[in-house]
TrEMBL record, chain A:
The lineage of its organism: Eukaryota, Fungi, Fungi incertae sedis, Blastocladiomycota, Blastocladiomycetes. One of its GO terms (biological process) is branched-chain amino acid catabolic process. Its cofactor is FAD. GO terms for molecular function: acyl-CoA dehydrogenase activity; flavin adenine dinucleotide binding. Keywords: Branched-chain amino acid catabolism, FAD, Flavoprotein, Oxidoreductase. This is Isobutyryl-CoA dehydrogenase, mitochondrial. The keyword Transport does not apply. SUPFAM superfamilies: Acyl-CoA dehydrogenase C-terminal domain-like, Acyl-CoA dehydrogenase NM domain-like. It catalyses: propanoyl-CoA + oxidized [electron-transfer flavoprotein] + H(+) = acryloyl-CoA + reduced [electron-transfer flavoprotein]; (2S)-2-methylbutanoyl-CoA + oxidized [electron-transfer flavoprotein] + H(+) = (2E)-2-methylbut-2-enoyl-CoA + reduced [electron-transfer flavoprotein].
Automatic annotation (TrEMBL), chain B:
Its cofactor is AMP; FAD. Belongs to the ETF beta-subunit/FixA family. The electron transfer flavoprotein serves as a specific electron acceptor for several dehydrogenases, including five acyl-CoA dehydrogenases, glutaryl-CoA and sarcosine dehydrogenase. It transfers the electrons to the main mitochondrial respiratory chain via ETF-ubiquinone oxidoreductase (ETF dehydrogenase). Signal peptide: none annotated. One of its GO terms (cellular component) is mitochondrial matrix. PANTHER family: ELECTRON TRANSFER FLAVOPROTEIN BETA-SUBUNIT, ELECTRON TRANSFER FLAVOPROTEIN SUBUNIT BETA. Heterodimer of an alpha and a beta subunit. This is Probable electron transfer flavoprotein subunit beta. Keywords: Electron transport, Mitochondrion, Transport. Pfam families: ETF (PF01012). One of its GO terms (molecular function) is electron transfer activity. Residues 25-190 form the Electron transfer flavoprotein alpha/beta-subunit N-terminal domain. InterPro entries: ET-Flavoprotein_bsu_CS, ETF_a/b_N, ETF_b, ETF_beta_N, Rossmann-like_a/b/a_fold.
C-alpha cells in the first residue's frame, strides 16, 4: 500500500520537474543546472531597482536567448525579428531613450546591467540590440522633433531595425577621413559612397549614415549625419554580400552601397557639420555597451567552465580538485569582477556627464573586451577536447567575443584616446 | 461589485540553487544564496493578471507574509500587473517558525479586512489547477486539476480558493517601465501582531466541516501526455 503511494507521488514529482524545465526553458539539451556562485553574482552592490532590471533581463536571456544561441550561429540566419520584438516589448528597444517616444528613460548604468544580463544568453543578438539602441539614442539626442516623432516609436518597439554606418573600406580607425559624400540638391541631399562591415546591413530598415557635406579634406568638421529610411529610397541603395564571419553570426554584416541615393534634407540629424561629434558621442556609450556584452559573455563562460570542471573527472577526482584549475577559476573571477567595476563606473561617469567619461569609456572597453576574451579562452581550455566541439557553447563565446576588441573603435584607438586624455593640459 | 483576487507570493531560495544545510543543522543556508519568487506564485499572479486583462476580475492584490526582504517579491508581483501589494511583516529570521495555519489565518484576516465576502473557511477549493475558466456571469469557476492518473474537471461557486500548478500558464516577464512603476506604487504594510500561541501552533487536529460547500466533479480523464 505504502509502496504504491510513494510511486504515485514520485511520478507526479517527476512529471512536475519535467514540466517545469519545459515551461521555463531553463536548461539546454542535457538537463544541466547552470552553475552559479554567490561570488560571481553580478548584482552585488546594486540597488533594488537595478537588481530587478538585471534579474528580469537574465530571466529573459535564459528563456529566449540562450536556447537559440547555437542554432542562430550555425545557421547564420538574419536577425531573429520575433525575438527582438519580444525584447522590445519589455522595453529593450530604447533603453536610454526618452519615454516621450516609447523609450524606457533609464540610465547608462541600467543599460549596462541589462546588456550584461542579456549577453549571458546570446552575445551576438545582444550586441545588435546595443547597436540599435545607440542609433535610437542618436536620433533621440540630436534629431528634430518631427524626425523623432516619425521614427522613434517604431524604433523603440523594434518594428523598424536600425544600423549604424560610419566605417568605410578606406576609413576605419581613421574615421574622420570618410569619403561618402552628401550634396545638397533642392530639398534633398544626394548620397554617394560605400560603408563597410555594417551590422544588420541588408536587413535593417533605418541606416544612420555619416557623410561628408563639407569640402574634400574637411576632416571631422565636414561630416553630417543622415537617417536613411530604406522603404522611402527609390533607387541607388544596395548591399554587398553577406560576410562570413568568425562569430556574431545571428546578425548579417554587409557593405552598404549608396549610388545617388536621395534623402530628404529634413532627414539630416541635428546640425550640418556636427555629424562626427554625434558619432563620437554615440560611440562613448557604444563602448560601454560592447564592454557590457563582453562582461555577460565572460560570465557565461566562467559558469560553463565551473560546471565542466566540477563534473569532469580525471585521475579519480573532478578537475576542480586540482589547484591549477582552481587558480585559473580564481583568476577568471577576479578579472571579471574588476572589469565589471570599471565598466559600471564608466557608465556612471557618462550618466553624470563627467569630463573623464570619454577616457573611462575607452578604459572600460579595453579592460572588459580583453579580459573577457582571455576568460573565454581559459574556459575553453578547461573543457579539454570538448571545448573544441560545436556541441558545447564555450567555443561560441570565444568566437563571438573576439570582435569586441576590434569594433566600436579598436582597442588600439582606445589606447590613443586614453593616453591623449592622460597627457592633455 | 466586481471580483477580486488575492494572490499569495513568497520569496524562496531559487530553484536552481543547490540547497545546503547549515553547519549547526538549524536550518538551510540562506545567507548570500540567490532567492526569487516561488515559480508557482508567478504562475498564480499571471493567471490573476490575465483574468484582469480579460475583464473578468476587477483587482489583483498580492500578499506576502515574510521578513522585510519579502518586499522584493511583492514588487515583482506589482511589476507583472498586480494592482496592490500587502506585506505582512514578520521579524527577520522568524520565517522558519511561521506555520501554514498561521499563514492561512493571516490570509483569512486580510480577506475579511478587504471585505472579500465571507471568511476564508467554508469556501470551496480547486487545487493543482492546470486550467481555469472563470464565469463572472453566474459566479462560477471551472477548474481542471492535475491529479495522479490524469485530469479532473470540477465546477465551483465563487468565492473559491485556487492553487496553481505548473501547466496553468507561462508567467510574463515584467517590463522595464512596469518595474519602475512598481517602485513608486504604494503598498500597504501590515505588521503581524506579536505572534500569539495560535500563530505558532501547528494544526494538530483535523475535522471535516459538515457545512462546507463542495465542488461538483464534472469530468475525469486519464493522462494523455507522455
Amino acid at each position: 500500500m505504502i509502496a504504491s503511494a510513494l510511486t504515485t507521488t514520485a511520478r507526479t514529482a517527476a512529471r512536475r520537474t519535467a514540466a517545469f524545465a519545459a515551461n521555463r526553458a531553463v536548461a539546454t539539451a542535457p538537463a544541466a543546472r547552470t552553475m552559479t556562485s554567490a561570488i560571481l553574482d553580478p548584482t552585488i552592490g546594486l540597488n533594488e531597482d537595478q537588481k530587478q532590471f538585471f534579474e528580469m533581463s537574465r530571466a529573459f536571456a535564459n528563456a529566449e536567448l540562450a536556447p537559440r544561441m547555437q542554432e542562430l550561429d550555425i545557421l547564420e540566419t538574419d536577425l531573429p525579428r520575433d525575438t527582438l520584438k519580444k525584447a522590445a516589448e519589455l522595453g529593450f528597444g530604447g533603453i536610454y531613450v526618452d519615454p516621450e517616444f516609447g523609450g524606457s528613460g533609464l540610465t547608462r548604468l541600467d543599460a549596462s546591467l541589462i546588456f550584461e544580463a542579456l549577453s549571458s544568453g546570446d552575445i551576438s543578438t545582444t550586441a545588435y540590440i546595443t547597436i540599435h539602441n545607440m542609433c535610437a539614442w542618436m536620433l533621440d539626442s540630436f534629431g528634430s522633433q518631427e524626425l523623432k516623432a516619425k521614427y522613434l516609436p517604431a524604433m523603440t518597439s523594434m518594428d523598424l531595425l536600425a544600423s549604424y554606418c560610419l566605417t568605410e573600406p578606406g576609413a576605419g580607425s581613421d574615421a574622420a577621413s570618410l569619403m561618402t559624400t552628401a550634396k545638397r540638391d533642392g530639398d534633398d541631399f544626394i548620397l554617394n559612397g560605400t560603408k563597410a562591415f555594417i551590422s544588420g546591413g541588408g536587413q535593417s530598415d533605418i541606416y544612420i549614415v555619416m557623410a561628408r557635406t563639407g569640402a574634400p579634406g574637411s576632416g571631422a568638421s565636414g561630416v553630417s549625419t543622415f537617417l536613411i529610411d530604406r522603404r522611402e529610397v527609390k533607387s541607388g541603395l544596395s548591399f554587398g554580400k553577406k560576410e562570413q564571419k568568425m562569430g556574431w553570426n545571428s546578425q548579417p554584416t554587409r557593405a552598404v552601397i549608396m549610388e545617388d541615393v536621395r534623402v530628404p534634407a529634413c532627414h539630416m540629424i541635428g546640425t550640418e557639420g556636427h555629424g562626427f561629434r554625434y558619432a563620437m558621442k554615440g560611440l562613448d556609450g557604444g563602448r560601454i555597451n560592447i564592454a557590457s556584452c563582453s562582461l555577460g559573455g565572460a560570465l557565461a563562460a566562467v559558469e560553463a567552465g565551473m560546471e565542466h570542471v566540477t563534473v569532469r573527472k580525471q585521475f579519480g577526482k573532478p578537475i576542480a580538485a586540482f589547484q591549477n584549475a582552481q587558480f585559473k577559476l580564481a583568476d577568471m573571477a577576479t578579472e571579471l569582477a574588476s572589469a565589471r567595476l570599471l565598466v559600471r563606473q564608466a557608465a556612471s561617469l557618462l550618466d553624470a556627464k563627467a569630463p573623464q567619461a570619454t577616457a573611462y569609456c575607452a578604459m572600460a572597453k579595453i579592460a572588459a573586451t580583453e579580459k573577457a576574451s582571455q576568460i573565454a579562452d581559459q574556459a575553453l581550455q578547461m573543457h579539454g577536447g570538448y571545448g573544441y566541439l560545436k556541441d558545447y557553447k564555450v567555443q561560441q563565446f570565444v568566437r563571438d567575443l573576439r570582435v569586441h576588441q576590434i569594433l566600436e573603435g579598436t582597442n588600439e584607438i582606445m589606447r590613443v584616446i586614453v593616453s591623449r586624455e592622460l597627457l592633455k593640459e | 461589485m466586481s471580483l477580486r483576487v488575492l494572490v499569495g507570493v513568497k520569496r524562496v531560495i531559487d530553484y536552481n540553487v543547490k540547497i545546503a544545510v547549515r553547519g549547526d543543522k538549524s536550518w538551510v543556508e540562506t545567507a548570500n544564496v540567490k532567492h526569487s519568487v516561488n515559480p508557482f506564485d508567478e504562475i498564480a499572479i499571471e493567471a490573476a493578471v490575465q483574468a484582469k486583462e480579460a475583464k473578468l476580475v476587477g483587482e489583483v492584490i498580492a500578499v506576502s507574509c515574510g521578513p522585510p526582504k519579502a518586499q522584493e517579491s511583492l514588487r515583482t508581483a506589482l511589476a507583472m500587473g498586480a494592482d496592490r501589494a500587502i506585506h505582512v511583516e514578520i521579524p527577520d529570521g522568524s520565517e522558519k517558525t511561521l506555520e501554514p495555519l498561521a499563514v492561512a489565518k493571516l490570509f483569512k484576516k486580510i480577506a475579511q479586512d478587504e471585505k472579500m465576502l465571507a471568511g476564508l473557511l467554508n469556501w470551496p477549493q480547486g487545487t493543482f489547477a492546470s486550467k481555469i475558466d472563470l464565469n463572472a456571469g453566474d459566479k462560477s469557476l471551472v477548474v481542471t486539476r492535475e491529479i495522479d492518473g490524469g485530469l479532473e474537471t470540477i465546477k465551483t461557486a465563487l468565492p473559491a480558493v485556487v492553487t496553481a500548478d505548473l501547466r496553468l500558464n507561462t508567467p510574463r516577464f515584467a517590463t522595464l517601465p512596469n518595474i519602475m512603476k512598481a517602485k513608486k506604487e504604494a503598498h500597504q504594510e501590515v505588521h503581524a501582531r506579536r505572534p500569539s500561541a495560535s500563530t505558532c501552533r501547528r494544526a494538530s487536529r483535523f475535522s471535516r466541516s459538515r457545512s462546507r460547500p463542495s465542488a461538483r466533479v464534472v469530468a475525469v480523464s486519464p493522462t494523455s501526455t507522455s
